[in-house]
């Protein structure tokens, strides 16, 4: 028996939410993520930026898997032949092309360190106000959403289930754009500096001079 749209959507919502929960947690608590990157059997620790990059790829594979699963289930085990007409296929292709272009340009502008949350770990990052950031606050999210609508327009339109996953991902990426914000006050470097600054202010003037002399 073919699963219902509600049950499929529930599973998809759960699986696709993992990425958004991860990035929100990363922005809110970078220190706890860095602790998880430590190797308990060695003094060496994994670079958190490298770990985020690997997880980024894993989440994209999970996302692609959910979409293929959806298309196969509601396509009764087949992706082809396409039921969409030429206009829908062309529109989907344009959305995918434009969306992927936005993502590539945004990543190129940001650089690897910024794109994979290096700022949250106290790394010096550079911000860019040129295109596409002059048009969109999160162009990589806009590009991802456009690509998702394009894919489902090609593979599932005009079936009644074609818009459910794109709508769900639009909501998720919209929430992510609001919640996954880089806040310098929450970065690892700022927290460490604030902790030592607080301890320094609690010292007496003489002890403070001694601390400065010993640390210089």
Give a nutshell description of this structure:
With 216 residues, this protein is mainly α. The chain has one domain (5-187).
Describe it for me?
Helix 4 runs antiparallel to helix 6 (139-155) and helix 6 runs antiparallel to helix 7. By secondary structure, the protein is mainly alpha-helical. The protein contains 9 helices and no strands. It is globular, with a radius of gyration of 22 Å. The protein has helices at residues 5-28, 30-36, 48-74, 86-110, 112-115, 139-155, 164-179, 188-202, 205-215. It has one domain (5-187). It starts with a helix and ends with a helix.
Keywords:
single chain; 216 residues; mainly alpha; disordered C terminus
């Amino acid at each position: 028996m073919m699963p219902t749209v509600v049950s499929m959507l529930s599973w998809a919502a759960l699986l696709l939410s993992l990425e958004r929960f991860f990035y929100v947690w990363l922005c809110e608590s970078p220190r706890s993520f860095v602790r998880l990157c430590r190797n308990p059997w060695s003094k060496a620790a994994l670079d958190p930026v490298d770990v985020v990059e690997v997880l980024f790829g894993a989440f994209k594979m999970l996302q692609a898997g959910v979409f293929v699963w959806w298309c196969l289930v509601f396509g009764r085990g087949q992706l082809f032949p396409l039921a969409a007409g030429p206009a829908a296929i062309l529109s989907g292709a344009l959305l995918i092309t434009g969306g992927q272009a936005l993502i590539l340009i945004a990543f190129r502008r940001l650089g690897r360190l910024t794109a994979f949350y290096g700022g949250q770990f106290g790394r010096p990052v550079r911000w860019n106000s040129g295109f596409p950031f002059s048009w969109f606050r999160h162009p990589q999210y806009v590009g991802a959403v456009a690509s998702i609508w394009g894919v489902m327009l090609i593979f599932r339109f005009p079936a009644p289930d074609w818009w459910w996953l794109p709508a769900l991902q639009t909501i998720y990426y919209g929430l992510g754009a609001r919640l996954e914000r880089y806040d310098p006050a929450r970065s690892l470097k700022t927290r460490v500096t604030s902790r030592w600054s607080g301890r320094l202010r609690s010292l007496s003037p003489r002890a403070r001079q001694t601390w400065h002399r010993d640390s210089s």
